[in-house]
Amino acid sequence: MKLSVCLCIFALSALSVQAKSVKNAQDTGKVIYCYFESWTVYRPGNGKFDVENIDPNLCTHIAFTFLGLNADGSIHILDPWESDPDGLNGFQRFVALKNQNANLKTIISLGGWNEGSQTYSEVVADATKRSTLVKEVLAFIQKYNFDGFDFDWEYPAKRDSVNPADKENFILMLQELKAAFQPYGYILSAAVNSAKVNIDGSYDVAALSQILDHINIMAYDFHGAFDNYVGHHTLLYSAEIDAQYNNSEWNIDTGVNYWLSQGADPSKINFGIATYARTFTLADATNTSLYAPISGGGTAGPYTRQDGVLGYNEICEAYPNRVDIWDDEQQVPHFVVGNQWIGYDDKKSLGVKVDYALSKNLGGFMVWSFDTDDFTGLCGEGKYPLINTIHTSLAEKGYSLKNNN
Ligand SMILES: *[C@@H]1O[C@H](CO)[C@@H](O)[C@H](O)[C@H]1NC(C)=O
Ligand SMILES: *[C@@H]1O[C@H](CO)[C@@H](O)[C@H](O)[C@H]1NC(C)=O
Description:
Bound molecules: 2-acetamido-2-deoxy-beta-D-glucopyranose
Number of domains: 1
CATH architecture: Alpha-Beta Barrel
Largest sheet: 8 strands, parallel, barrel
Oligomer: single chain
Order of helices and strands: HEEEHHEHHEHEHHEHHEEEEHEEEHEHE
């Protein structure tokens, strides 16, 4: 009896060791897919960010944002001066980062918030326009030697979209791109909405997951100056107070779980990390709680120059003595200075997010964006303290970066 118990335990543990090592061989290499906002070359002073500020060993994939879409399905370069050989030559300098890291993949991204939804809605509904877009994207990738293409439509069947069939037409569009990319092995990714209530209307999750190499979930911007109250934009979980405002599903965890429950392959999902804060000017500086009334976005910073937003680099430079308040329910920090309420991610909350993504077996992380991390190291935590926290947290858990070769 005793012997058989011992044998049984031995057999079980041998099995579990074997299962673990098989799983690790597949899963230890994680993606870090980082976006470059090309217009940041025009920022002043310490905020000016150019291609050469990108550390080519920080991310496995880097995406240049953005190209624009024309009504006939052709594409245009949003800022020819910044991108083209007769100007600052941004595309070629970007792709040349591969000379410093042969493992790096360079992606060109189409879309973004400012593009709106209407043109996308019209182009994907029309077979001729879709075919024009496929031809133009392929030619663009080949002309500049990118490794792939990212579709950042914000969002199918939302905002100024004109067509509830965007969801199906988006799949047709991506299938046609994928078919054209196949002979060359080009990467196809998309940036997608993370809020549960927005997923069904915009995405055929199972079909997207079949087609795409990467699903970049934008796990941020849940709250901001576009609301009329205080909220944290990267809340991992809802707090008790969220239920009182019917917001208990308005958080990252609910969104990620929904993507997974609808059939997304976890290994294709990159969990979006924001290196910026969403900020508020409190209507009453003594009421600093979630849902407290605001008079508007927080004061603009010197580099991002937009009310309601601050880069981590702007935060650490302007508020070196800030005192973070940790929200145990939402698992994110904020701080308050005078009438300014600033909700962001620090090393602690990023560690929590890395652990979370690992617990869901996600493929890795997406980062928006390089330029608002402390990329010069001016706050004394080294260069890129936030993106490096992803590296450190992964290494602590025995994970490394995906080898793309
Ligand atoms: C929450 O939803 C309930 C039921 O639909 C509604 O009665 C209530 O007014 C809502 N509360 C808020 C704060 O929106
Ligand atoms: C803060 O604002 C919220 C939302 O309006 C309100 O429910 C709460 O009572 C206020 N708290 C204080 C201390 O004024």
